[in-house]
From TrEMBL, chain A:
The protein's name: ABC transporter permease
Organism, scientific name: Belliella filtrata
Protein's UniProt keywords contain Transmembrane helix: yes
Signal peptide segment: none
Transmembrane regions: 54-73, 93-112, 152-175, 195-221, 241-262
Residues in coiled coil: none
UniProt keyword annotations, A-Z: Membrane, Transmembrane, Transmembrane helix
Pfam family, one: MlaE
The keyword Transmembrane is assigned to this record: yes
Top-level taxon: Bacteria
TrEMBL record, chain B:
Residue spans crossing the bilayer: 9-30
Domain Mce/MlaD positions: 40-114
Pfam families assigned: MlaD (PF02470)
InterPro entries for the chain: Mce/MlaD, MlaD_Phospholipid_Transporter
PANTHER family found in the cross-reference section: INTERMEMBRANE PHOSPHOLIPID TRANSPORT SYSTEM BINDING PROTEIN MLAD (PTHR33371:SF4), INTERMEMBRANE PHOSPHOLIPID TRANSPORT SYSTEM BINDING PROTEIN MLAD-RELATED (PTHR33371)
Keywords for the protein's UniProt record, in alphabetical order: Membrane, Transmembrane, Transmembrane helix
Full protein name: MlaD family protein
Length: 265, 321
């Protein structure tokens, strides 16, 4: 009995121990992903199915969101620029905002809500219904089949969704600018590309890859480590969304620092 | 199985469109930023680049022809700019062209502007260094502006003093503005001026009418100005007049000669007019003639009463009565 109580005694505090254990588990989970991702068998079929679910099925929602973001951001930026008589700078402003930040961020947040929760709930329910254990018994590597495939799918699909979002948001912005400032399509896009650089495009894509990976791995981790039955599934779905969004903002902040360091080096 | 294929195709289309958007964006971006065009490198050295950054645009005659590739220190404290300029533009940039730093709009990015160059100079080549011209320094502009401000303040002060004096009625303008008599005079003057203007106008109208009348056909002036025959006659008359004047001139000279001769004593009339001795002689001659005539009259009267002329004289008297 005393041995048992000695074993349950926290190393630091109960909460801190839990947090650090979680962190270590998450690290091990990510490490395992990078170990497993290179090893066969490669679950192409499952990756493709996840790409369809995550990428193609998210397209209408992402497109609509991007379109609205383009229109709203243009409309909200106009009064400030009008004060300086600089409404002709709207395309450049929108371009920088959407390509550098809004496009990846909005796409990642929407995907975290839609895809992250779905992954967390799906894997969580499989965990609590012991389907993952069953897979292990069936000589199927559940980590590879569930985690690696989904994480690869989100990592690949989010950058493509970001490209769609950027494009649709710029179209939305163009419609608004065209209605108010009577700017032609070619003139609008000339100003859009005048304002950005390759660094903006590539940093946006690399950031999207990281966001995609984050959404996938967090959703899988939360689902894979869920417990307490159906309640745990809900918690896993919720936690995966919250944690993904939180990490996305942290990554956005870090990415901004890194890109600025490169830009002004 | 068919459903899986459909999903695969849809994912393929989805990815393909995404890649097309990416490639189109990269190509457009590269095209606009002249990343994929053949280019040459040009250099320029400035004392101060005013915040110019790599990637900023290079303009020539208002057209974007390249970007700033490198910025690094040169010499003691100067800065050397290396620019990528598209090859197709180099034929228009001469070796004596100048480079300066300007701004894209009032608050826009810094840009390099290449300008000038003469057609006599050869075209630039890869690695050429352009003559740089320092841009207008904002601080210097502000200094000049401050000087202008000071001048403006002193001008307004002077103006204040001037207007104060005017308001107090000092000087001619002040007197005009404040003195009611002067104002009245001025008003009368203006009224007179107005009347004069009206009369001038009237006179101008009259003159116009007169000139119109003069221009009418049959009028002497009109005929003089327009009739070629009259002009011919007039010209002929002038020629005749000229000849008459010549004759008169000749006559005058003759008269002058005659007068000269009359003034001299080497001729009869001149002697008569000018020689005093001759005059005396002539006078005494005339006296003698006069006395001779008197004696002759007396002789003739005596003769009247003498025989044989007595009867003849009586007959003549009767005939006269």
């Amino acid at each position: 009995m005393s041995e048992q109580s000695e074993k349950n005694k926290p190393v630091l505090t109960k909460k801190l121990d839990k947090f650090l254990t979680g962190l270590a588990n998450a690290f091990r989970f990510v490490k395992r992903f990078f170990q497993e991702v290179w090893l066969p068998p490669y679950e192409f079929k499952e990756i493709l199915r996840q790409c369809y679910e995550i990428g193609y099925r998210s397209l209408p929602l992402i497109s609509l969101t991007g379109f609205i973001v383009g229109i709203v951001f243009t409309n909200q930026s106009r009064p400030s620029l009008t004060e300086f008589g600089a409404t002709s700078w709207l395309p450049a402003l929108i371009s920088i905002a959407i390509i550098r930040a809004m496009g990846p961020l909005v796409t990642a947040l929407i995907a975290a809500g839609k895809v992250g929760s779905s992954i967390g709930a799906e894997i969580g329910s499989m965990k609590v219904t012991e389907q993952i254990d069953a897979m292990e018994v069936s000589a199927i590597n559940p980590f590879k089949y569930l985690v690696v495939s989904r994480t690869i799918a989100t990592t690949l699909m989010i950058p493509i969704l970001v490209l769609y979002t950027d494009f649709v948001a710029l179209i939305g912005s163009f419609i608004n600018v065209n209605q108010n400032e009577l700017v032609s399509l070619s003139s609008f896009f000339v100003q859009v590309f005048e304002a950005i650089s390759f660094l903006d495009v590539f940093s946006s894509l690399i950031k999207s890859l990281v966001f995609g990976f984050t959404i996938g791995i967090v959703g899988c981790y939360k689902g894979y480590n869920s417990s307490n039955g159906t309640e745990g599934v809900g918690k896993a779905a919720n936690a995966s969304v919250v944690m993904s969004m939180f990490l996305i903002f942290i990554e956005e902040l870090l990415a901004l620092q890194i890109v600025n360091a490169i830009r002004y080096a | 199985m068919r459903n899986d294929n459909k999903k695969t195709v849809l994912v393929g289309v989805f990815v393909l469109i995404g890649i097309i958007i990416l490639v189109a964006g990269i190509m457009t971006l590269g095209g606009q930023q002249k990343k994929f065009v053949k280019s040459i490198s040009l250099k320029a050295v400035f004392d101060d680049v005013a915040g110019l950054q790599t990637g900023n645009n290079v303009w020539f005659s208002g057209v974007k022809i390249g970007t700033v590739k490198k910025i690094h220190f040169y010499g003691d404290s100067q800065v050397e700019i290396e620019m990528n300029v598209e090859s197709k533009s180099k034929d228009y940039i001469r070796k004596d062209s100048k480079a300066t730093i300007s701004s894209d709009g009032l608050i826009g990015n810094k840009i390099i502007v290449i300008y000038g160059g003469t057609s006599q100079a050869p075209v630039v080549e890869n690695g050429d260094r352009l003559v740089s011209e320092m841009p207008l320094d904002t601080d210097k502009m502000m200094e000049t502006l401050q000087e202008n401000n000071n001048n403006l303040v002193s001008i307004t002060n002077d103006l204040k003093v001037l207007t104060g004096k005017i308001a107090e009625g000092e000087g001619i303008i002040g007197a005009v503005l404040t003195d009611s008599t002067l104002a009245m005079n001025f008003r009368n003057m203006m009224v007179s001026l107005e009347k004069t203007a009206v009369k001038s106008n009237q006179m101008a109208n009259d003159l116009a009418k007169l000139s119109a009348n003069l221009n009418q056909e049959g009028n002497l002036v009109h005929d003089l100005l327009t009739d070629k025959e009259i002009y011919g006659n007039l010209q002929k008359s002038i020629v005749d007049l000229q000849s008459t004047a010549d004759n008169a001139k000749e006559m005058t000279s003759n008269l002058n000669a005659v007068t000269n001769k009359l003034n001299s004593t080497d001729n009869a009339v001149g002697t008569l007019l000018n020689d005093a001795e001759f005059n005396n002689t002539l006078k005494s001659t005339m006296v003698n003639i006069d006395s001779s005539t008197m004696n002759l009259n007396r002789g003739l009267e005596a003769l009247e009463y003498t025989w044989p002329f007595r009867r003849g004289f009586k007959r003549m008297n009767r005939a006269n009565n």
